[in-house]
Automatic annotation (TrEMBL), chain A:
Its main location: membrane. The keyword Transmembrane applies. This is Ribose ABC transport system, permease protein RbsC. It comes from uncultured Rubrobacteraceae bacterium. GO terms for molecular function: transmembrane transporter activity.
UniProtKB/TrEMBL annotation, chain B:
One of its GO terms (molecular function) is carbohydrate binding. Belongs to the bacterial solute-binding protein 2 family. This is Ribose ABC transporter, periplasmic ribose-binding protein RbsB. One of its GO terms (cellular component) is cell envelope. Pfam families: Peripla_BP_4. It is found in: Cell envelope.
Length: 325, 378, 523, 332
């Protein structure tokens, strides 16, 4: 019995691996350069984590269902440009939201239908739609758009007391996503699809509809990320977001404990992952690492972090298997 | 602060009708693509008919074709460049083809090689790297296809280089910013991405000038942005909290400066001086109110128009030197220019108003009615 | 609500059902009738058409001939939804549960309780319903546990509950006990009893004669896709039923082959893996079959894994042909002519997408041919002769192994090792889930190896198999080798040693170990 | 003796070939210059590196892995090679240095994945950033001249009018085919991807096999780097940008599933050629870049779709489409 309790605590520690990782990184950062953990900088880290977090939440659900979605890379650009162009052509904010969010949903619908109905693997489908979206964005945007909308500005860069509104919004969206993941059948079925697709099919889960919904969800998150970006950045070029945002988001998801083989992933972990990615970028900025080496260090930090986590997991497995045998 | 919020009179570019047309297109295209996807393996025809129209137009008029091999067509500068290039093509009655390498150097070479194969009349390359394009220029030489390399000097003998003095211009920008700051204090610099020739050259010009000539100016940080305004904004946000005394921000490209201003505005900072490059019209209000010290007018539109003009003239048999220089202008408000002059820095600059005129009058500056000599200074 | 016992008697009739696939007539004129509250057994060799019939009932295949009548009305089962709607539920050999979801979530997957027509689930209500149903069926499972933490047996029960929740009145069970421990099997029997009381009909598919006779009233016998006949099990003997299935008399399912035993090939002493296995000592001579017997979880399979180097040993000595191996590893063992045929052929035996030839050559190719190249001609020759001697059907070396029947797959797994001419064969449950005909074929093969002087160490849960073929039986209890019996021992003798000593009868204790073993095995 | 019948792989290869020819023909009709020997050689030249890396990627994917780092490996290997040459090492050693650097990155991937246990996708995503960063910082973000004729030969010369790189890619096509289909290692790759448990039980060194597939991918990236350096006359820190996606696309268009255990080198080659033809053809048409993006995306989807003929049919799609809006699962 004692053994089993020991094993449980191991398992519980592992559940918080992303959070532990965050703590370790913050601790190391504090030693290296105290400016990093200054309150104002930490707020920056959080604000800069918001678009990553939103895209990552979409990516998490897709990964949980055993798929992958590359299209948010330029999907964010497309939605941002749609919003900006609507506003600049004299449309109301509501109109702009409809276009922007509509764009994300249509993108998700396209992905979902091609994957679900035509049966083309998600990797190729979303890679192809990424290319298509890039073309569409360029067709639509011929230059940098400068958006000044008080509501969007407040959303992107205002703050409520000491807390930036963007962070509040992401908190709210995350709470909703927690609800969706835990309390709707959409969430349940997404996990089922990723963990054992055959079982889900045999249980009567409508597979095509479920897949369409999953990619629409990802498209919706893409669009929300675009809304926040437009609010915060205001200067929208057709290359806003792009591959680097997507890679950050997927890295965040995986650091947060989502398995890319489906079935596993949590909102809390994903958010932590987003903060970690944002923090690592921030640390490199604050330390003034040479631009040529930034990518190198980012890659190195991520590899070290994941290796530590994987090593930890292996240790834990060994401990637990020794415990039961 | 509000008065220099970077809102410009750009609404004209975004008429409601144009937007609806474009947005409509954006949403119908997936449907069309889907349609193509549904009708089976002969969709190759979809792409084909699309272009035939274009081809016919070209062949029908019997005019020359210029092939552009670009690093990237998604960046704002290139987007504008291509737009103005289109105008030039109309004025010069040539057809232009613009293809993007998406940042991949092998792709760009492949595009250039295909242009040789396709017997384009002139090939214009915006080279990721000067060395790497020597082999393909030699290929073009064998096919006797003229080549113009843009913005980055390729020494292969055969090609024309269309250049503007990036390094020197950025050195002047550095001097202007430093002088405006009384030659002391902390500044930071936003670059595009490492390995990008234009960004690297401008960075070197700026950085080396500051280091050599202004010992009391501290360049605290250089951040890469991938030319993405969102990343630029994030970098500046970090600076503003990490370096509370930051007094100046410069960048290799104007949209990044806009993002920096936006970040500063959000942080409630209105005491920072900016300096940029490109000469975008959006910067004029800030030049006038004194928050922006200096800008360099190359002008994406001018660059686009100029290169097409040079290409078209070469195609039609005009003779040029191997190196052509496009006149660039420093843009400064009058009071800023006199302030700097008081402190001993004379910069031969135009006012924002003049710059607007110059930037928009590229069609006259490099139009078909001009003599060959108008294509280059010096 | 959804799980009340149906009041009236329902019936399903298949009348002259036939189904063809390109080149094969999988089902030919099969008729079957089953109604509420009865257990009917479906028997036949692998490849006899049982799975096709199950798929017809599950709505996966639609028959080309004949008709299906439910409660006397013509019915069409075009897709799984139709079958579900008709109240038919199939419990597959490979579970259709989602490991990461909880028991309750699994039970309600696809038919979640919602608030009105919204997408919101009533989690608490689902949990409550699940708990109530589990309680009614007297199952001791917490509905909030993730399914991946359940034992195989518990998962089976959850599957049944899930079917009940879907108002199934006909549950098809496809070899449900093949991976269960004795205790779990008994629990399943009890559950079936309760289901029958509630008026559920059960179509029970199994190879095990004893449970067919124990549970079912009648049996429907299939052979080569044809309906051979129905057997009233109260009047039919086991031998008759087997004859109906096989179409000939099977003299002996477990034939004994005589051979001269020679030198000791394997000697183990004090084997201990720090887990289930504590202390095992015995030896195997060439030309001899030694069976390891004992309850599940008594460390039988762990011996084979330990000897073959698949798990790390903490203590003890493994000696192969007089050579003591310091750290046994699969490669080292294979190099010394030891072959291991694992228990779960889907999981650890075959590579499904590979061809029969490549599966058979998997071990053989190593070290043969020059510089790491495969010699295709030699491999072809080897494979052809193996296919012939193993009687693999269809005998096409290029067909993917996943398309073969279970028995034939098992032959391929066996053949993979036979190709290497082993001197010691480690067999883990060689005939589990294999039909009678293939069982006898496999043992004929093992017998042949024995006459050729191969030493064979076999783990089997089936006592008739142990008693039938083994020259000696080593009985395991709680990780220790407690007895060594010569051939001719009785089932009672083995069981007495396996349970420790009969007097103490620590049955409950054993059950606990039992479960632990299970969860290890499927983890 | 051996009965001749077309397995699914052969059918797929035929389909790919026919699709490629049809698309090529369509482009040819649209712009006649497309159907010329010179252009075909050009397509070969431009596809050479992609297909070489796609061959190794096929091995990685068959063994149930993925390697996203190959693009930056091409860059970092080239830079390291150029630096050793700059340091005065003989050309032959420089050549080896490039290959060795590729193998090194591959080994790092293999180590992270098989020893540490990081998932392949994320491990190689990490080395992707690492490699790109390393090549930028080692080179100071600028290209390094390479002048040694021996090093340049592979990427810049011709054999009987055919570019050496094309010849090399064809030789590697044969070598990789032999490796996967005629060697014990090839069997292991399929077995490991098809059922790692069974492979382990068959005394196959599973991790070692996986490790070697990543080393192979690194080596292939090294070969790709040699060609690229020759083609560019210099080592470029930004070489190989996006190459990983090009290679994976070729593999998938060739019909290999990402779930492992299945795959064919010939199909991958055809996939690479098909993508090459599409890219070159669209370039020949001279349409706007935006349209090129859109059409490329659609054509790739189409190419994968035609591969699946027999697996999924329009009728089935309609049926599935009907189910999107269909009634409650199970309820009806």
């Amino acid at each position: 019995m004692d053994k089993s309790r020991g094993r449980f605590s191991w398992a519980r520690i592992l559940d918080f691996a992303p959070q532990l990782l965050l703590v370790v990184i913050v601790a190391v950062a504090a030693v290296v350069d105290p400016r990093i953990i200054a309150a104002a900088n930490m707020v920056d880290v959080l604000v800069q984590a918001t678009p990553i977090a939103l895209v990552a939440l979409g990516a998490m659900v897709v990964l949980v269902s055993g798929g992958i979605d590359f299209s948010p890379a330029y999907g964010v650009s497309l939605c941002s440009v749609l919003i900006g162009a609507t506003l600049l052509s004299g449309g109301s904010l509501i109109e702009a939201m409809v276009w922007g969010i509509g764009g994300g949903v249509v993108l998700g619908l396209f992905n979902g239908l091609v994957i679900g109905v035509l049966g083309i693997p998600p990797f190729v489908t979303t890679f192809a739609s990424l290319t298509i979206v890039q073309g569409l964005t360029l067709l639509l945007a011929t230059e940098t758009l400068i958006v000044q909308n008080p509501t969007l500005d407040a959303l992107g860069s205002g703050s409520f007391g000491p807390v930036p509104i963007a962070v509040l919004v992401v908190g709210l969206v995350s709470a909703l996503v927690v609800g969706v993941v835990r309390y709707t059948r959409f969430g349940l079925r997404s996990y089922a699809l990723g963990s054992n697709a055959e079982a889900a099919r045999l249980s009567g889960v409508p597979m095509v509809r479920q897949q369409v919904l999953i990619y629409v969800f990802s498209g919706l998150m893409t669009a929300l990320a675009a809304v926040l970006l437009v609010g915060r950045v205001s200067i929208i070029a057709p290359n806003i977001g792009g591959i680097s945002l997507l890679l950050d988001a997927i890295t965040a998801t995986v650091i947060g404990g989502t398995s890319i083989f489906g079935g596993r992933g949590s909102v809390g972990g994903t958010l932590t992952g987003a903060v970690i990615v944002s923090l690592v970028t921030n640390i490199l900025r604050v330390l003034g690492v040479d631009p040529s080496s930034q990518e190198f260090f980012k890659g190195a930090i991520i590899i070290v972090a994941l290796s530590a986590e994987a090593g930890f997991r292996a240790l834990q497995n060994r401990a637990s298997s020794a415990g039961t045998r | 602060m509000k008065e220099h919020s970077p809102q410009s009179g750009d609404d004209r570019r975004w008429s409601r009708r144009a937007f609806l047309k474009r947005a409509g297109m954006t949403l119908t295209l997936p449907a069309i693509s889907g349609g193509i996807a549904a009708c089976g393996p002969f969709a190759g025809g979809g792409g084909q008919s699309e272009s035939q129209g274009g081809d016919e137009g070209a062949v029908g008029q019997g005019n020359k074709t210029l092939g552009f091999a670009m690093i990237n067509l998604t960046l704002p500068f290139f987007v504008r460049m291509q737009e103005a290039g289109g105008e030039a093509a109309k004025d010069y009655n040539v057809r232009t083809v613009w293809q993007s390498a998406d940042g991949n150097i092998e792709n760009e070479i492949a595009i250039a090689e295909r242009y040789v194969q396709q017997e384009q009349d002139v090939i214009l390359i915006d080279p990721v790297d000067a060395k790497a394009f020597e082999p393909v220029v030699r290929q073009a030489e064998e096919a006797e296809t003229p080549v113009v390399t843009m913005g980055n000097k390729v020494e292969a003998g055969w090609n024309f280089n269309t250049l503007y003095p990036d390094y020197e211009n950025m050195a002047t920008v550095a001097r202007a910013l430093a002088t405006a700051l009384d030659e002391k204090g902390q500044i930071a610099f936003l670059v595009g991405s490492r390995g990008n020739y234009v960004s690297d050259t401008r960075e070197a010009g700026f950085k080396e000038t500051i280091e050599q000539e202004f010992p009391d100016i501290e360049l605290v940080s250089v951040q890469p942005t991938d030319f993405d305004t969102a990343q630029a904004q994030a970098a500046v946000e970090t600076w503003l909290t990490t370096y509370p005394d930051l007094a100046g921000i410069a960048s290799v490209s104007d949209p990044l400066v806009l993002a920096a201003m936006n970040a500063a505005e959000n942080a409630g900072r209105d005491d920072i001086l900016y300096a940029g490059h490109d000469g975008d019209a959006e910067m004029h209000p800030m030049l006038k109110d004194g928050s922006m010290v200096i800008d360099v007018l190359t002008g994406a539109e001018r660059v686009g128009y100029w290169n097409v003009a040079v290409g078209a003239r070469i195609a039609k048999g005009e003779k040029f030197n191997k190196e052509l220089f496009m006149p660039t202008y420093f843009v400064m408000a009058d009071d800023m220019a006199s302030r700097l002059a008081d402190r001993g820095l004379e910069v031969d600059a135009v006012t924002p108003e003049e710059a607007t005129e110059t930037a928009q009058s590229y069609a006259e500056e490099f139009g078909p009615d001009q003599p060959s000599s108008a294509m280059s200074v010096g | 609500m959804s799980d009340r016992p149906p009041q009236d008697v329902r019936t399903l009739e298949l009348i002259g059902v036939g189904k063809s696939f390109p080149g094969v007539k999988a089902l030919d004129n099969v008729s079957l009738e089953i109604s509420s509250g009865e257990v009917v057994s479906l028997v036949g060799e692998n490849g006899a058409g049982k799975s096709t019939l199950v798929k017809v009932l599950a709505g996966v295949h639609e028959p080309d001939e004949g008709s299906i009548r439910i409660d006397g009305h013509q019915a069409r089962l075009q897709n799984p939804d139709d079958a579900r709607a008709a109240g038919i539920s199939v419990i597959h050999q490979h579970f259709s549960l989602v490991p990461v979801l909880s028991v309750a979530e699994n039970m309600f997957l696809g038919r979640e309780l919602r608030l009105g027509r919204s997408g919101l689930m009533r989690r608490r209500a689902m949990l409550r319903e699940a708990r109530r149903l589990l309680g009614e069926l007297e199952l001791d499972v917490d509905p909030a546990t993730p399914v991946e933490r359940l034992t195989v047996g518990q998962r089976q029960m959850v599957e049944v509950c899930k079917a009940m929740l879907g108002r199934a009145w006909l549950i098809v069970m496809d070899e449900p006990t093949s991976a269960l421990s004795t205790r779990e099997r008994d629990q399943l029997y009890a559950l079936i009893g309760r289901l029958v009381e509630r008026g559920v009909a059960i179509l029970y598919i199994s190879h095990k004669m004893e449970e067919i006779f124990h549970l079912a009233r009648s049996a429907v016998v299939l052979r080569d896709g044809r309906h051979v006949g129905d057997a009233d099990l109260s009047t039919t003997t086991e031998a008759d039923l087997v004859e109906m299935m096989v179409g000939r008399q099977v003299e002996e399912v477990f034939p004994r082959t005589e051979a001269r035993s020679g030198d000791v090939v394997l000697r183990v002493e004090g084997l201990d893996d720090g887990g289930l296995l504590r202390d095992a000592t015995f030896s195997v001579k060439s030309g001899e079959i030694v069976a390891l017997s004992g309850l599940m979880g008594s460390g039988r399979s762990e011996i084979l894994e330990g000897v073959f180097g698949l798990s790390k040993l903490r203590g003890g000595k493994v000696e192969v042909a007089g050579e003591v191996l310091e750290a046994p590893s699969p490669a080292a063992l294979a190099a010394r002519g030891v072959a291991f045929i694992p228990e779960d052929r889907q999981e650890a035996g075959i590579v499904p997408a590979m061809s029969t030839q490549h599966n058979l050559g998997l071990v053989w190719t190593r070290g043969r041919g020059r510089a790491g190249f495969v010699n295709p001609r030699a491999e072809r020759t080897m494979v052809r002769s193996l296919i012939q001697s193993l009687n693999v059907r269809p005998p096409n070396p290029d067909s993917a192994v996943e398309s073969l029947s279970g028995g034939n797959q098992q032959k391929v797994v066996l053949g993979k090792w036979l190709a290497t001419d082993p001197r010691l064969l480690l067999l883990d449950e060689p005939t589990r889930g294999v039909d009678v005909g293939a069982k006898s074929e496999i043992h004929k093969l093992v017998g042949e190896l024995k006459t050729r002087g191969v030493a064979i160490l076999m783990v089997s849960s089936e006592l008739p198999e142990v008693l039938g073929v083994a020259d000696r039986v080593v009985v395991m209890h709680e990780g220790r080798s407690v007895a060594e019996l010569e051939s001719g021992a009785t089932e009672q003798e083995i069981m007495r040693h396996a349970l420790g000593s009969a007097e103490r009868a620590p049955a409950e204790h054993i059950d606990k170990r039992d479960d632990a073993g299970e969860s290890e095995n499927d983890g | 003796m051996r009965d001749i019948r077309f397995g699914p792989q052969v059918v797929r290869q035929m389909l790919l070939l026919v699709t490629t020819c049809l698309i090529g023909l369509a482009f040819g009709v649209a712009s006649p210059g497309f159907l010329s020997l010179g252009n075909f050689l050009n397509i070969g030249l431009q596809t050479a590196v992609i297909s070489i890396i796609a061959f190794a990627m096929t091995c990685v994917i068959v063994a149930k892995g993925i390697d996203l780092s190959v693009g930056s490996t091409v860059a970092v290997a080239g830079i390291i090679g150029a630096l050793t040459l700059q340091a005065g090492l003989p050309p032959l050693l420089g050549l080896f240095a490039i290959l060795l650097a590729g193998v090194g990155v591959g080994a790092l991937n293999g180590f992270l994945i098989t020893v540490i246990g990081v998932s392949p996708f994320i491990a190689t995503l990490g080395t992707l950033a690492l490699g790109r960063g390393a090549s930028l910082s080692l080179s100071g973000a600028s290209s390094i001249d390479v002048g040694q004729p021996l090093v340049l030969w592979f990427g810049s010369s011709q054999l009987l009018g055919v570019p050496v790189s094309v010849v090399l890619s064809l030789v590697l096509l044969v070598l990789f085919w032999v490796l996967l289909n005629r060697t014990v290692f090839g069997r292991w790759v399929f077995a490991v991807g098809g059922n790692a448990e069974a492979a382990r039980a068959s005394t196959i060194p599973v991790r070692w096999t996986q490790f070697l597939t990543y080393v192979l991918a690194g080596l292939a990236a090294g070969v790709g780097s040699v060609i690229t350096v020759g083609r560019l006359g210099s080592a470029q820190p930004l070489a190989g940008e996006g190459l990983e996606f090009a290679a994976i696309t070729a593999v998938i268009v060739g019909g290999t599933k990402l779930s492992g255990g299945e795959g064919s080198i010939v199909s991958t080659f055809l996939g690479a050629v098909l993508v090459g033809v599409i890219t070159a053809g669209l370039s020949f048409l001279g349409v706007r870049q935006e349209i090129t993006y859109i059409v490329t995306g659609v054509l790739i989807l189409l190419a994968v779709l035609t591969n699946q003929v027999g697996v999924s049919r329009p009728a089935l799609w309609l049926k599935k489409l009907g189910r999107v809006r269909g009634p409650e699962g199970g309820a009806e």
